[in-house]
Design goal:
CATH topology of the largest domain: TIM Barrel
Structural class: alpha/beta
Shape: globular
Number of helices: 14
Distance between the termini: 30 Å
Number of domains: 2
Bound molecules: N-carbamoyl-L-aspartate, zinc ion
CATH superfamily of the largest domain: Metal-dependent hydrolases
Radius of gyration: 21 Å
Length: 447
């Protein structure tokens, strides 16, 4: 059953809020407007006093399959996604094996499709030893690529300058955007060794070992190579004021460089290590203070194109080690939209920023637009109905992750994801999963 009518809701798009009905037939939005007739639909959903947003496209998830299922798996991760209003995820390639060629990409797609509660697209990884796989991975459906400039989960090596140049040349030629984990490998190694020598073990050291310089140095390197090679760069998980300034310089210089940040960089603070210890260890690190303020300001002003979750689950054992040994990253796909709605309903940012940052731009940048990311005739019937007068209690019971290791447990957030519709299928009803497992693999839409 994928034919339905959503009535009387307030549709939130980046351009404004509209009191319209939405008709979905065979999974596709066919009509938007006032007083639409229910002919041909099996279900009418009343969204009075609610907001209706396009399904969220979370461009930054690490769901761990294949190979790292002991941390989490696609079944848990994709259930968590839809419960939080995410209807499309862009899955990152640092799995085991990493997504290094088209065969691995297609094998991963097949595996995930058998477990998917959410629609998903895939990124390939690029480094010195596999750059010649670029075109084949695009052909197989990759929506973009990921390059790791610094050390993090998966130990993927950073590219040499010449490889980076060729990646960006190919990015220009094929019109594909490349996501960068922008932390300079050698500088991270240098600062880590230097700080380890002090013998201190407090968790804040993780932040000291990756100061803003490591981000800035990496961004300026990417920017200078992109300036001359061409191509489209996307800096993910921007964590500092300094990184924002570096990206601004690159843009003034005419470089096509877009940017993502994640909720933890503007919601958490370095003081939170006292309470959470290595649970909030993440790369780049939580900084707080002036960085937190600058990030929020940059979100409100429109500097950032996207906000992703950087959903990165690990086991309780991996997260309870000492700060140097603990794994970096924590899950966030289920809380991404609720945290952003809470900010909007408390007046921190306009509600219309949410569809732009969490749906429209990720779909545009990663070749899923206009099928995903918006509500218009011809687009996928992916809708999230929000009750602004209810609250989301973030509890272990509510979270669908394999391990409930979220720093947001205990929060009471304004607004609640009531219903979620994926290609016309009701996958969440009154906050609960309906059990419909209808997720599919999304190939890049060539423009
Ligand atoms: C990510 C992970 O665990 O996959 N960890 C993280 O700290 N952000 C990898 C990454 O994006 O760096
Ligand atoms: Zn990263």
């Amino acid at each position: 059953m994928s034919n339905l009518l959503v009535k009387n809701g307030n549709i939130v798009l980046s351009t404004g809020i509209y009191k319209w009905d939405i008709k979905v037939l065979n999974g596709i939005v066919v009509e938007i407007g006032r007083g639409i007739s229910p002919s041909g639909v099996e279900e009418v959903i009343d969204a009075s006093n609610c907001y209706v947003l396009p399904g969220v496209v979370d461009e930054h998830v690490h769901m761990r399959e294949p190979g790292l299922e002991y941390k989490d798996d696609f079944e848990h991760g994709s259930k968590a996604a839809i419960k939080g209003g995410v209807t499309t995820v862009i899955e990152h390639p640092n799995t085991l094996p990493p997504v290094e060629d088209s065969k691995k990409l297609l094998t991963k797609a097949k595996l995930l499709e058998s477990k998917a509660y959410v629609d998903f697209a895939l990124l390939g990884v690029l480094h010195d030893a596999n750059i010649f796989e670029f075109e084949d991975m695009i052909e197989a459906g990759a929506v973009g690529f990921k390059v790791f400039m610094g050390p993090t989960t998966g130990n993927i090596p950073p590219p040499s300058e010449s490889t980076l140049y060729e990646i960006m040349e190919k990015s220009a030629k094929k019109n594909v955007r490349v996501m960068f984990h922008a932390e300079d490998y050698k500088l991270v190694e240098y600062f880590t060794e230097r700080i380890k020598k002090t013998g201190r073990i407090d968790p804040e050291l993780h932040t000291e070992a990756r100061p803003p310089l490591v981000e800035v140095h990496s961004i300026l390197k990417i920017a200078s190579i992109t300036k001359y090679a061409g191509g489209h760069a996307h800096i993910v998980h921007v964590s500092s004021l300094d990184a924002i300034e570096a990206i601004k310089l690159a843009r003034e210089w005419g470089v096509d460089i877009t940017a993502e940040t994640c909720p933890h960089y503007f919601l958490l603070d370095i003081n939170d290590y006292k309470r959470y210890k290595a649970l909030i260890k993440v790369n780049p690190p939580i900084r707080g203070g002036i960085h937190r303020e600058a990030l929020l300001k940059a979100i409100v002003s429109g500097f950032f194109e996207t906000i992703g979750s950087d959903h990165a689950p690990h086991t309780p054992e991996e997260k309870s080690k000492s700060i140097w040994e603990a794994a970096a990253g924590f899950p966030g796909v289920q809380t991404l939209l609720p945290l952003m709605l809470d900010l909007a309903f408390r007046g921190v940012l306009p509600l219309t920023h949410i569809p732009r940052l969490l749906a429209e731009n990720p779909a545009k940048l990663f070749n899923l637009w206009p099928y995903k990311g918006t509500i218009m005739p011809g687009s996928s019937g992916d809708l999230v109905i929000i009750d602004p007068d209810s609250y989301t209690e973030v509890t272990s019971e509510w979270l669908e992750y394999k391990y409930k290791l979220s720093p947001y447990i205990g929060l009471r957030l304004k607004g609640r994801v009531r219903d979620v519709i994926l290609r016309g299928h009701v996958v969440v009803k009154d906050g609960k999963l309906t059990g419909r497992k209808v997720g599919v693999f999304l190939k890049r839409i060539s423009q």
